[in-house]
Design goal:
- By secondary structure, the chain is mainly alpha-helical.
- The chain has one domain.
- It is built from 4 helices and no strands.
- The longest helix is centred in the first third of the chain and has 46 residues.
């Protein structure tokens, strides 16, 4: 009989082959896949939530245009502070027609500022800015998701 080499578990060696425990590796991979899927889902939900900030900012600007141009309809989804500024500017412009463009211009500038701030908040939340979104900062999804790895 020949001496068996270390790690050689042939029938001639006389030693029993150790059971390979692939279940731990499979469980680890399953847990990692589950975590990756959950992280991807949370990332997608966060992006969708952040997109609402863009919608509200955009619809507020549409409301601004409608009100400042004399329309009587508006979207329900919009910022109340911009609507209040627009209505106030319209009422002042009716009382003081000489200053109408100045008052409406100031209201428009205020509305643009507020809409840009809202869009910036949505952008920061989409990037997971920790102090703004209340979420812990996580690495980019591309490093975790198998389809996005390079």
């Amino acid at each position: 009989m020949t001496d068996a080499l270390p790690g050689d578990y042939s029938e001639n060696s006389g030693e029993a082959e150790p059971a390979h425990d692939n279940t731990n590796a499979a469980e680890s991979q399953t847990v990692q896949d589950r975590q990756t899927t959950e992280m991807w889902s949370l990332h997608t939900q966060g992006r969708k939530g952040a997109n609402w900030f863009y919608w509200v900012a955009g619809l507020s600007m549409v409301n601004t245009a409608i009100i400042l141009l004399g329309g009587s309809i508006y979207f329900i989804v919009g910022l109340g502070v911009t609507m209040a500024a627009d209505i106030l500017a319209t009422l002042i412009a009716q009382d003081h027609p000489n200053a109408a463009w100045l008052v409406k211009g100031v209201a428009l500038a205020f509305d643009i500022f507020v809409a840009l701030m809202l869009a910036a908040i949505g952008w920061c939340i989409g990037l997971h800015v920790e102090w703004l979104s209340g979420l812990p900062k996580t690495p980019r999804i591309g490093s975790y998701h198998p389809r996005l790895r390079k």
